[in-house]
Structures are given as structure tokens and as C-alpha cells.
Amino acid sequence: MKISESDLIINPDGSIYHLNLLPGDIADTVITVGDPDRVGEVSKYFDKIEFKKGKREFITHTGYLGKKRVTVLSTGIGTDNIDIVFNELDALVNVDFETREIKKELTSINIIRVGTSGAVQPDIPMGTILASSYGLGMDALMNYYLQKLSGDEQILMDDIKAHFGHLKNINPYLTAASETLLNTIGKDMAKGITITAPGFYAPQGRIVRAKNAVPDFIDLINSFKSNQHRITNLEMETAGIYALAKVLGHNAISVNAILASRVNFEFSKEPNKIVEQAIKMVLERI
Ligand SMILES: O=P(O)(O)O[C@H]1O[C@H](CO)[C@@H](O)[C@H]1O
Ligand SMILES: O=c1cc[nH]c(=O)[nH]1
Fold first, then answer.
1. What is the pLDDT of residues 115-137, one digit of tens each?
2. Which pTM value belongs to this model?
3. Is the CB of 236 within 6 Å of ligand 1?
4. Distance (Å, whole) CA 45 – CA 286
5. What CATH number labels 1-107?
């Protein structure tokens, strides 16, 4: 069936609406970062840059690490942007832009987020590089998609609903990381459940001037336990990435540079160094 011109918007030059990329522009390994300035911090390690493109906050560099073609792309902040980036990345590989039909043979790509995050457990200090075993979304993105949980995800989800069920306005969603990427890119890294929040301040338990509706949010988060699982950190994209990657048939992992300790009330004085370390670890393992 043809996808309509208002469902899938293709620019006059044949590129996809927001990302401004042509089919063929992305490699089958895509590194996503939140901050557009971080794209160059990743691609400076490429042996060759094929091209640089961009529109709004979505900056893309595709190039080579040795013989391996790699794309690095900025998503900006939040899961509303993840909705755009993931649907457009998927369309670039799985929709024929000439016929507007879904391709008969679907392609799965590997997506690796390198982001920044705040830890909520006292034994996870600033400077830790942590791979998210699960993404737990506290935002509303997955209210709009159908998602099927695996048995393991369902067991964990039941405990999450019991723990957070009194927060009536929040409908949490949960997705596991790609097991293969967790065992390769994430090998030897600290691991835990990452909460994706729909904001940086009260949605992550921060108090500045506005009063928080959920008191002691960090205590509520770090006291959660389900078998060996616990919540380790907070950021703003991972759960949307994991959920949409799974819905669309791609593999995803999120690597978090821990810049803040929310339980020790500290923020790193050298955030760039920690991010640099996370980038290098990921590039060595691709
Ligand atoms: O450093 P990035 O990848 O943007 O990630 C984190 O930093 C931003 C907030 O400062 C949010 O996007 C959060 O997820
Ligand atoms: O605490 C933090 C640090 C970085 N990014 C976040 O979203 N939260």
C-alpha cells in the first residue's frame, strides 16, 4: 500500500522531511547523540568523512572507521524528537521513496546512543560509563504506539506498575536493550534500568523554584527493586529509542556518561572528559 504524501513527507530533493537525508545516506550502524555539537566530537575519530548534512537540531555525519561505514546523528532533547528521528531513519531503509511502498525485504540497523545522564544510586559515581539494560519511559510517547512486551519485560513491568502505580498521571513503558549490543558495546560497563523523563527539572526530581507534584521522586526511583534489577540513572531519550527500535525491528543500546550524582547532589566539573571517554569506548567496540 502506498504511504500518503502527508504521512511520509519527502522534500523536493528526495530527502526525508526533518533529517534532510536521502536513502543511502545512513550506514547500518548509527550513533545517536542528543547534543548537535557532539556529532563532530564523534566524527573527529572517523578515518574518512563522506558527508555532513543537517536541518534544525538533526546534524548528520557519515564516514568510515577503517572499512566500516558509520553514521553519527544528533536527536536534540527528548522523546518527541526520538519519534521523528526513528520513524525517519526507519523510512530511509525500509520504504521505497519512488513507489512510497514498504520494501518487501526489511533492513535492521544497529543504533547506539551516546548520551549524558544523572545517577540515582550512591555506588554509581560521576564518571561512570553505564549501559542501559532497559529503558523505562515516564513520558507519553508509547501511549501512541502498539508495543508487545516479552515475558521478561512483562514480569519487570508488573513490579514497576506496583511501585509507581500511585502516580496516576504517568503510564510507564519498558523495553529491553538489544542483547547482542549489550554484550558487545556494553560489555564490562555498569548496567541498570534507565528512566527516561519528559523533562530535566521536576520530571527528574529537581527542585529550583516551582513546587514538585511528586515529592521525594529520587527516593521513589532508587528504592525500586525487582529480582536483580534496579534503576540506576535518569535522562531523556533512551526509553523512546529502545521502544521504537523494537517496534520497527532495529537493535538499540544506550551508553550513558554519568555527569551527575543525584543522591550526592553533585555535577561533574569536567563533563566533556566523561563524554569523550564514552565516545572512545563505543568507537573501539563498534
Ligand atoms: O546529552 P544528551 O544526549 O542530550 O542527553 C541528556 O542531556 C539532555 C539534558 O541536558 C537530555 O537530552 C538528556 O537525555
Ligand atoms: O541529570 C542529568 C544529567 C544529564 N542529563 C539528564 O537528563 N539528567
1. 999 999 999 999 999 999 999 99
2. 0.98
3. yes
4. 13
5. 3.40.50.1580
